[in-house]
């Protein structure tokens, strides 16, 4: 019975399954895309033919085949059709389960670095979220007592007391802190039931809200792909996530608007194919870009942009982007930012399949 290797097609990494002499038995879809050859064409060819240093591949296959090592890992260059440059990859060679075949898994060097960076950020965000949640709960309980005591003191003082103003300040500040604590806890509340969502209805709702807030000097542009299907999600939370990002962009454009210089935000929707979200390969994903021509994110904030309480504005709370990313992650998606002076792009990716 011929082994079934089709499960490798679900991986974003490049995979070759070879027999003991190193001839290809199976190439997954990701490998086909890189070398521009069909699976049938690759079968029977020597795997080493696709590498700039074939001797490294032969050595690794021989070592794993002879059971000198369980796995072998080395750097290599995957040859691609001219005029494309060779692809820098890490190659992991291991034995396939239940047979004599060997598996070569190829991970792009840049992809490996990106995955390590994303894993570091996830760990950092997870620690920050836990700290913020615990801190918010510790603050919330005393606030209720503080506000109640101020109200009782106001009753004791009576309406004519000149000290009544101070009790009102205490109540007002306690309410303000309560609102901040509620926003800190908001990302940790469960997402409501999912339902079919049209991303363009979400975009238009956010566009109307931001246009009402910035009626002069800001151009909100559309670039929609009308063929995009509906997907399963929480419409109201997605509106909140997109609103936080677009409003953040609009506020960054504030100085340009005041000076009368061109200021625009573009909402662009497209279908993205073969996208890795977390550690899962999605054949189809929804891509929503929020692009502005503002000053860009300061370099010292770029690695901390989505952490709670991190902000570049004196009047900001640093919770908007954190909440947006948390909502997107609850939808099994990703939110990333690419910024330079004159162009900042926030990229929403949400799975369609």
UniProtKB/TrEMBL annotation:
One of its GO terms (molecular function) is phosphorelay sensor kinase activity. It is an enzyme of class 2 (transferase). PROSITE patterns: HIS_KIN (PS50109). Transmembrane segments: none annotated. InterPro entries: HATPase_C_sf (IPR036890), HATPase_dom (IPR003594), His_kinase_dom (IPR005467), HisK_dim/P_dom (IPR003661), HisK_dim/P_sf (IPR036097), PAS-like_dom_sf (IPR035965), PAS_4 (IPR013656), Sig_transdc_His_kin-like_C (IPR004358). It catalyses: ATP + protein L-histidine = ADP + protein N-phospho-L-histidine. Keywords: ATP-binding, Kinase, Nucleotide-binding, Phosphoprotein, Transferase, Two-component regulatory system. Residues 134-353 form the Histidine kinase domain. It comes from the Bacteria. Its EC number is 2.7.13.3. This is histidine kinase. It comes from Inhella gelatinilytica.
């Amino acid at each position: 019975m011929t082994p079934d290797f089709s499960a490798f097609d679900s991986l974003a990494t490049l995979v070759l399954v070879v027999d003991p002499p190193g001839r290809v038995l199976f190439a997954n879809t990701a490998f086909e895309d890189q070398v521009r050859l069909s699976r049938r064409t690759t079968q029977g060819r020597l795997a080493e033919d696709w590498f700039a240093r074939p001797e490294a591949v032969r050595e690794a296959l021989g070592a794993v085949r002879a059971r000198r090592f369980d796995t072998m890992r080395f750097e290599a260059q995957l040859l691609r059709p001219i005029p494309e440059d060779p692809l820098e990859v890490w190659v992991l060679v291991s034995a396939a389960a239940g047979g004599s075949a060997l598996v070569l898994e190829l991970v792009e060097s840049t992809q490996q670095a990106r995955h390590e960076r994303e894993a570091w950020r996830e760990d950092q965000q997870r620690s920050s979220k836990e700290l913020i949640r615990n801190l918010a709960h510790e603050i919330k309980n005393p606030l209720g007592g503080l506000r109640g005591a101020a109200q009782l003191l106001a009753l004791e003082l009576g309406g004519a007391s000149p000290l009544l103003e101070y009790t009102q300040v205490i109540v007002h500040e306690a309410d303000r802190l309560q609102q901040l604590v509620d926003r800190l806890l908001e990302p940790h509340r469960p997402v409501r039931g999912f339902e079919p969502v049209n991303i363009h209805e979400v975009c238009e709702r956010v566009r109307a809200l931001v246009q009402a807030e910035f009626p002069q000097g800001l151009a909100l542009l559309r670039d929609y792909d009308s063929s995009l299907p509906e997907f399963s999600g929480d419409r109201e939370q997605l509106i909140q996530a997109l609103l936080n990002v677009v409003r953040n962009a609009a506020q960054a454009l504030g100085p340009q608007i005041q000076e009368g210089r061109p200021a625009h935000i573009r909402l662009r929707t497209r279908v993205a194919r073969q996208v890795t979200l977390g550690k899962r390969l999605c054949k189809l994903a929804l891509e929503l870009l929020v692009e502005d021509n503002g000053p860009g994110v300061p370099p010292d904030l770029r690695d901390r942009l989505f952490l709670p309480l991190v902000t570049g504005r004196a009047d900001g709370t640093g919770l908007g982007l954190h909440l947006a990313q948390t909502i997107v992650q609850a939808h099994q998606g990703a939110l990333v930012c690419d910024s330079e002076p004159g162009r900042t792009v926030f990229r929403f990716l949400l799975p369609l399949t």
